Amino acid sequence: MRALLHRLPFALAITLVLVLKAVILFMLYKAFFSTPQVKKMRMPTAQVEQHLLATPRPTPPVPAKATP
To answer: Which UniProt key words apply to this protein (predicted)?
Structure first.
């Protein structure tokens, strides 16, 4: 493989590497960022913003147990 790359012109070698990278990136995109299973699964933007930007509710402190 290395000997093959040495015989190719530099521009062709760079082009092959870029095409290979593009194919790998496309495969990763399809694997991890696929479309939702149901096209109608849409949420109102305001509701999503409210959920993401809301401050978390404070949790009440747990009382310490008294030791005898």
So the answer is: Membrane, Transmembrane, Transmembrane helix
What does the pLDDT look like over 19-67, one tens digit per residue?
A: 999 999 999 998 888 766 666 777 788 888 888 888 777 777 777 776 6
Place of tokens 């809301």: 54
Q: How far is residue 29's CA from residue 23's CA, in Å, rounded to a whole number?
A: 10
Amino acid letter, residue 64: A
And the tokens for 26? 């496309």
Q: Which amino acid is at 13?
A: A
Whole-model pTM over 0.70? no
Q: How far is CA 5 from the centre of its chain?
A: 33
